[in-house]
């Protein structure tokens, strides 16, 4: 079994590498795979041979690579958080959005967009540039904390209450976002719309390095909790009987998922579907064992989001399609196909 | 070895378990009997450390239950809970392997695989090995869960095993098999505590019987000592007749007329 898991993870990684290379090569400035490898080798100092144009290297290193890396990070973060949250809630319909992460981020981002003139315009330089991201991350953390506090009593987190509080806070945030949208000027409306559809357009090495720790920490730690998540699938009491500190585990998972999703939403806006569906795809095609689903969701999420972003920036080039639209439009039929095949399989 | 010393558990002013004391030695099978709401499940939760007593102490192998770390505890006691629905579907042998989780870090060793194989033979579910848990019948699921629980403490023959109504949902044959298995485990040295509804099963398989009413002890002792009309009437508010039966050391209990 464990060998099978390793093999699947290896295959997924191969897929991811292929997508990364492909995505780095396709775009307005075409780069062939040999040229790509040559640029990488040259930059890494392995080879002195220069059989590419300087412009190609500049585009790859300054424009395309940061964007691809950003896609990988966000995809991995959304995928792994989705898997962990579904395991935690013992509910395949759960996704990080349910505990208020996205709602809080959206509310705060929209708040910044609509009320921009006041406080944030006075902040110059880097902080001013990142105002929306910072506010969104803050919003994500605050709502999740609020939802978590609401559903925790005597140190125990009631999952049903957590879900219900999440739904409540989502509606509340949606209400406020609606109000702000109503108040917004004609110039601000496109910014709100675009933000809520998601985009990796803001990619630079600065955003990548800012996001990096928020994604790497959850992606490294969560797979270690996979075994405990398996045990949790049997029930809270059963997991406790198996020696798992359920209270601590819930807390860690919520914190890590908020970290990954909150920072992703902060950088790229709302990108739906990945967190919900990637774990399902793995579960339905291979196994429900979280030792595959949790790390696998990170890898497959990264591959899929990078591929989706490649499509988003090439389909209607030179314009760009918001990536949230693509993930939903392509992903949903794929998901429905999987559901139907799964249903037919179970009938037999 | 479990010693329960004057434990009380209350929610608000309602005492669910009241000043209860008893002791179970290694190699003993204790059956807990009581009407619905008598505090059996609360007692089980206290013993599992899902909840802690407001007063009194529970000692496990001479050490206070509170002082154990959870992973330590998982190696020396296993629990078969009453409700066992699982949210994500697992293949049977993976699920039984979960019983070994407290014993390995990431990958199970050959020893763990060996144990999984043995417990599946012992509980008669080897043929279900590759099946999806959620496609099994209730009785099969119960036996799979029992093997998982057994796998957890299989190589620790003086461990404690808590069974919360293990015969629930099983047909006559499997009820019998599960109880025989519990008996065998006790004979091997396990300390087994089992909540049961069937008085006849209890008197036949248990070394001791604890009868509970409103969280308090009605009687405790060997089946022959405690199975009598008065105790049963006190515990279950029902009149019974005792019938000696060939091959049974303890008389069988059958309900007499019910007076409501």
Give a brief description.
The complex is a heterodimer of chains A (348) and B (260). Chain A is mainly α.
Question: Could you characterize the architecture of this molecule?
Answer:
The complex is a heterodimer of chains A (348) and B (260). Chain A is mainly α and 348 residues long. Chain A has a single domain, classed as Orthogonal Bundle (ABC transporter involved in vitamin B12 uptake, BtuC), CATH 1.10.3470. Helix content of chain A is 75%, strand content 1%. Chain A has helices at residues 2-25, 33-43, 54-89, 101-114, 125-129, 131-150, 159-183, 188-197, 205-221, 226-232, 236-241, 246-268, 274-285, 290-314, 323-347, and strands at residues 152-153, 156-157. Chain A has a two-stranded antiparallel ribbon. In chain A, a hairpin with a 2-residue loop joins β1 (152-153) and β2 (156-157). Chain A is globular, with a radius of gyration of 21 Å. The two termini of chain A are 24 Å apart. The mean pLDDT of chain A is 83. Chain B has a single domain (2-255), classed as P-loop containing nucleotide triphosphate hydrolases (Rossmann fold, 3-Layer(aba) Sandwich), CATH 3.40.50. In chain B, the strands form 3 sheets. Chain B has a 6-stranded mixed beta sheet, sandwiched between helices. The longest helix of chain B is centred in the C-terminal third of the chain and has 17 residues, at 172-188. Chain B is of the alpha/beta class. Chain B is globular, with a radius of gyration of 19 Å. Chain B has helices at 40-48, 70-76, 92-98, 110-122, 138-153, 172-188, 199-205, 223-226, 229-236; strands at residues 2-11, 14-24, 29-34, 55-60, 63-64, 77-80, 160-164, 191-195, 208-213, 216-221, 240-243, 252-255. The mean pLDDT of chain B is 89. In chain B, β1 and β2 form a beta hairpin. Chain B contains 9 helices and 12 strands. The A-B interface holds A 1-2, 87, 90-92, 227, 230-231, 233-235, 237-238, 240-245, 283, 287-291, 346 and B 48-50, 70-75, 77-79, 81, 83-91, 94-95, 98-99, 101-102, 106-108, 135, 152.
């Amino acid at each position: 079994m464990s060998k099978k898991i390793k093999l699947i993870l290896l295959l997924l990684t191969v897929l991811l590498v292929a997508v990364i290379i492909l995505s780095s090569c396709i775009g307005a400035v075409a780069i062939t795979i040999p040229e790509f490898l040559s640029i990488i080798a040259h930059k890494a100092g392995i080879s002195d041979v220069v059989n590419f144009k300087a412009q190609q290297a500049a585009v790859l290193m300054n424009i395309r690579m940061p964007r691809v890396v950003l896609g990988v990070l966000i995809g991995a973060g959304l995928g792994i958080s989705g898997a962990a949250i579904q395991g935690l809630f013992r509910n395949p319909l759960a996704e990080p959005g349910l505990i208020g992460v996205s709602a809080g981020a959206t509310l705060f981002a929209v708040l910044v967009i609509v009320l921009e003139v006041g406080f944030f315009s006075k902040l110059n330089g880097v902080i001013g540039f990142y105002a929306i991201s910072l506010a969104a991350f803050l919003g994500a953390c605050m709502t999740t904390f609020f939802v978590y506090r609401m559903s925790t009593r005597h140190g125990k987190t009631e999952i049903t209450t957590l879900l219900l509080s999440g739904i409540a806070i989502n509606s509340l945030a949606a209400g406020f976002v609606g109000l702000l949208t109503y108040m917004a000027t004609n110039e601000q409306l496109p910014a709100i719309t675009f933000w809520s559809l998601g985009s990796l357009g803001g990619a630079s090495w600065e955003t990548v390095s800012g996001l990096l720790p928020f994604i790497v920490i959850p992606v490294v730690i969560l797979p270690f909790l996979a075994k405990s998540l398996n045990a949790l699938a049997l029930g809270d009491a059963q997991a406790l009987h198996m020696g798992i500190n359920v209270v601590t585990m819930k807390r860690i998972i919520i914190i890590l998922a908020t970290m990954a999703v909150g920072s992703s939403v902060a950088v790229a806006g709302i990108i739906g579907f990945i967190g919900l569906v990637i774990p399902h795809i793995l579960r339905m095609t291979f196994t429900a064992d979280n030792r595959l689903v949790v790390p696998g969701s990170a890898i497959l999420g990264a591959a899929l989001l990078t591929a989706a972003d490649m499509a988003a920036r090439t389909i209607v080039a030179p314009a760009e399609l918001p990536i949230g639209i693509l993930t939903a439009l392509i992903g949903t039929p794929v998901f429905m196909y999987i559901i139907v095949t799964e249903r037919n399989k179970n009938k037999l | 070895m479990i010693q329960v010393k004057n434990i009380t558990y209350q929610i608000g002013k309602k005492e669910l378990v009241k000043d209860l004391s008893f002791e179970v030695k290694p190699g003993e099978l204790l059956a807990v009997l009581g009407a619905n709401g008598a505090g059996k499940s609360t007692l089980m939760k206290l013993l599992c450390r899902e909840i802690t007593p407001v007063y009194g102490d529970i000692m496990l192998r001479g050490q206070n239950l509170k002082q154990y770390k959870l992973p330590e505890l998982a190696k020396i006691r296993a629990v078969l809970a009453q409700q066992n629905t699982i949210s994500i579907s697992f293949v049977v042998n993976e699920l039984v392997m979960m019983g070994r989780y407290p014993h390995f870090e990431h990958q199970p060793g050959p020893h763990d695989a060996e144990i999984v194989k043995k417990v599946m033979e012992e509980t008669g579910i080897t043929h279900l090995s590759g099946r999806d848990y959620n496609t099994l019948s209730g009785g099969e699921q119960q036996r799979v869960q029992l093997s998982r629980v057994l796998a957890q403490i299989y190589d620790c023959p003086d461990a404690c095993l808590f069974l919360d109504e293990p015969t629930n949902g099983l047909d006559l044959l499997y009820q019998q098999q599960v109880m025989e298995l519990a008996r065998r485990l006790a004979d091997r040295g396990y300390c087994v505590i089992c909540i049961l509804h069937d008085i006849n099963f209890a008197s036949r398989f248990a070394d001791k019987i604890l009868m509970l009413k409103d969280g308090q002890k009605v009687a405790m002792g060997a089946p022959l000592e405690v199975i009598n009309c008065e105790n049963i009437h006190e515990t279950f508010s029902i009149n019974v007749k005792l019938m000696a039966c060939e091959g049974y050391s303890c008389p069988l209990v059958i309900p007499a007329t019910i007076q409501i």
